[in-house]
Design goal:
- The protein is α+β, with helices and mostly antiparallel strands.
- Helix content is 35%, strand content 25%.
- The protein has four helices and ten strands, in the order E-H-H-H-H-E-E-E-E-E-E-E-E-E.
- A hairpin with a 6-residue loop joins strand 3 and strand 4.
- The protein is elongated and about 75 Å long.
């Protein structure tokens, strides 16, 4: 399985509306006629027209007539919707060509963002609210009960109380002592293998 993180197309929009309009126009210009983006989800002229309306509305809002700001905000919402469609299409094109994903995103005037998926560990040990307490949190499995064990040398394991939730609180631990914990699940299909051990120094 590939471990290459997926790259994402993002528009880091400035807060100032005039600057935002300019940025959007650059994106539309770079996307128009772009060989990597031959079939937009909707015509790019729709976004251009929405930008024209927003630019006029922003000028009116700066002059201060009653209701001008509300009209500007409504047109800003339309532009943001149009731009989300453009970005979604660029992302689709990038996903379809992972080898050139970064180049495709940048060719549209967008920013490349890499997000590595965060995976919850199978087992985590956290300090409790009182000395000598550790709270164990395992990866939940539908319809399972949980068997827990504890060790101070990872050779001899002591059974802890079973639970029907993927958490267990262990009290009475000796401070400055390293404890290791593991768990396994019992479902209708039987017992799973033991999880990897997690170690923590009791406080």
């Amino acid at each position: 399985m590939s471990t290459t993180p997926r790259v994402h197309a993002a528009q880091k929009a400035p807060k100032q509306i005039t600057a935002y309009i300019k940025q959007c126009r650059v994106i539309i210009d770079k996307s128009t006629g772009n060989p990597d983006l031959p079939n937009p989800l909707e015509p790019l002229t729709l976004a251009s027209a929405a930008l024209d309306l927003l630019e006029t509305a922003e000028q009116n809002a700066l002059k201060g007539p009653k209701g001008a700001a509300q009209d500007r905000d409504a047109k800003l919402g339309v532009v943001r919707t149009r731009m989300r469609v453009v970005i979604a299409y660029v992302q689709t094109a990038a996903d379809a060509n992972p080898a050139r994903a970064r180049a495709i995103i940048e060719s549209a005037g967008l920013t490349v963002v890499t997000r590595t998926p965060r995976r919850k560990p199978n087992l985590a040990a956290k300090y409790g609210t009182i000395p000598g307490r550790i709270v164990l949190e395992g990866k939940a499995v539908r319809g399972a009960s949980y068997h827990w064990q504890m060790s101070i040398d990872q050779k001899t394991w002591t059974d802890l109380p079973e639970s029907v939730k993927a958490t267990l609180t262990v009290d009475g631990l000796t401070p400055a002592t390293t404890y290791s914990f593991r768990f396994r699940t019992l479902t209708k299909d039987g017992l799973s293998d033991w999880s990897g051990a997690v170690s923590v120094i009791a406080h």
